[in-house]
Specification:
The protein is α+β, with helices and mostly antiparallel strands. Strands 1, 2, 3, 6, 12 and 13 form a 6-stranded mixed β-sheet that branches. A 3-stranded antiparallel β-sheet has the order 8-7-9, sandwiched between helices. Helix 1 crosses helix 7. The termini are far apart.
């Protein structure tokens, strides 16, 4: 085995993934990997962010040649921006939030069950993936992108530069249990990454704060301080407590507590926005089925991102495909306003509360539907 030349950090996110790297014998400069990915049928562009979306199109959904990537002329799936955008139109073919499914102990995470509520009774097993295989698909795309961008020479791939031969740090939620962590390792191994170190996300964020502040952080904290690290992600929210102590005159940082595993994050925000818009449409006697609701959810995610990143934007138009024979005639229209986004996200997920506030508990009676067990109280501040 060749000695690793790079340290690569991969943030395998619920909604988006990112990879960064630095040379082991270099000056410590950290670079973000620009990841080639499909952004439209037949169009490859580099992005710093890879949406953690996997599209498994049916025979008539997307032409096979439109899914080609530089390292694979005949893929049967797509990962990244195009997968996310096209998946909003055909949500029964889209796998999203695979990372959240890794910690769902109500299902067999080795079985091909995703897309959840997708095409049922399919004869072609390749139209569904297990949560582990879906996470592995995202990691495989990052690996292939690295090998294409960094390890490819005119004579072929340089084994010494391949991602499989580098030191890889892979992030996981601090609240992931031992099983979910082991499944994450399995997904990495399926992607050919056998030499990985798991790094908890709040700790990674804290390390990044220290690195960005250089030695300045030592003047901002004092012995006896307790630092709360809040990591609000796409699928989970993590809290970690770090205590500042002193040893021989030097400040020492020690993690002393980790919060419960909270399945609340950007996915829930998108769902809340979708149900808000659906309620407005219902007032106009327009009812959406499960398939259309999934499409609306993805459209609201895109609208949320557009409205929050454009200070002057007031509304985002939403189009939902109809289910009748007339594709154009059956198209449904709605809009998401910036006022709605602010109200739903701030009041619902980040409300002001007192230090003594507790999460509201919802009593569960009878059989719980198998799926993602989101928190009954989405107010992150109360947790």
């Amino acid at each position: 085995m060749t000695s690793p030349q790079f340290i690569i950090g991969i943030d395998l996110g619920t909604t988006n993934s990112v990879a960064a790297y630095t040379a082991i014998n270099g000056d410590g400069h950290i670079q973000v990997l620009s990841i080639p990915q499909l952004t439209a049928p037949g169009t490859i562009e580099k992005r710093d962010i890879l949406p953690s979306a996997v599209l498994i199109p049916g025979e008539n959904d997307t032409p096979a040649q439109a899914l080609q990537v530089p390292w694979n002329p005949s893929p049967h799936m797509a990962v990244g921006e195009f997968a996310r955008n096209r998946g909003a139109e055909i949500p029964h073919r889209l796998i999203s939030s695979a990372k959240s499914w890794l910690c769902n102990d109500m299902i067999d995470r080795h079985k091909p069950i995703l897309p959840w509520e997708g095409v049922e009774n399919v004869s072609d097993a390749s139209l569904k993936l297990s949560p582990i295989a879906a996470a592995a698909a995202v990691l495989t795309h990052i690996r292939d992108a690295w090998n294409h961008e960094i390890a490819t020479l005119p004579t072929g791939l340089d084994d010494a530069l391949r991602m499989e031969n580098q030191e890889v740090l892979l992030t996981v939620p601090a609240s992931f249990d031992a099983v979910a962590r082991e499944l994450t390792v399995t997904a990495a191994q399926m992607a050919g990454l056998n030499h990985i170190i798991l790094l908890e996300e709040p700790q990674a964020a804290f390390y990044a704060w220290i690195e960005a502040d250089k030695d300045g952080w030592r003047h901002k904290v004092h012995r006896g301080d307790v630092i709360l690290v809040c990591d609000i992600g796409g699928g989970t929210t993590d809290f970690s407590l770090i205590e500042v102590s002193e040893n021989n005159g030097d400040l020492v940082l020690e993690r002393i507590a980790v919060g419960n595993h909270l399945l609340v994050g950007g996915d829930n925000m998108d769902l809340s926005l979708a149900y808000t818009v659906a309620g407005q449409m219902a007032a106009q006697n327009v009812r959406l089925d499960t398939w259309q609701m999934r499409g609306l959810c993805h459209a609201c995610r895109k609208g949320k991102e557009k409205l929050l990143s454009a200070p002057d934007a007031e509304a985002y138009p939403i189009t939902i495909l109809g289910r009748g024979k007339s594709l154009i005639g059956g198209t449904l229209k709605a809009q998401l306003t910036v006022e709605t986004v602010h109200k739903v996200l701030l009041d619902g997920f980040l409300p002001a509360c007192s230090l003594t506030s507790q999460p509201e508990k919802q009593r569960t009676i009878g059989i719980r539907e198998v799926g993602l067990a989101y928190e009954s109280d989405p107010a992150i501040t109360r947790h």
